[in-house]
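Lab channel / #folding
Pinned by the channel admin:
"Please post every new chain as: sequence first, then the C-alpha cells as a reply. Keep commentary short and put observations after the output so the thread stays searchable."

First post following the new format, from NK:
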Amino acid sequence: MSIIGIVATLPVQAGKEAEFEKVFADLRSKVKANEKGCLQYDFFKSKSEPSTYIVMEQYASQADLDAHGKTDYFRAAGPALGGVLGGAPTLQFLDKVE
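Reply from TO:
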C-alpha cells in the first residue's frame, strides 16, 4: 500500500478569506468524520501571502483518493469554494517515502 500525498495551493480573492475558511472548515470536518482512508486533511494560511492557502492531504490508497472526490459533500463544496477562489488551485501529487 502506497500512501498518496497532495499539496494544494489555493489563491483566495482578497477579502474572501473568512468565507473560504468557513467553507473549508466545514468540508474538513465532514472529510475527517466520514473518510477512514483520508489520513490528513488540513489547511494552512500563508504567512507571507495572506490570501494564499495550502491544503495538505494524505490518503491510504488511490481508491481512497478517488472516493474522496466523489463524495456529495466534496461536490457540494465546489461551487462555494469556486466563488471565493482567485484562480485555479495548483496540485502536487506525492508518494510517501518510507
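NK: The beta strands are 4-11, 38-45, 52-59, 90-95.
TO: also worth noting, The chain has three helices and four strands.
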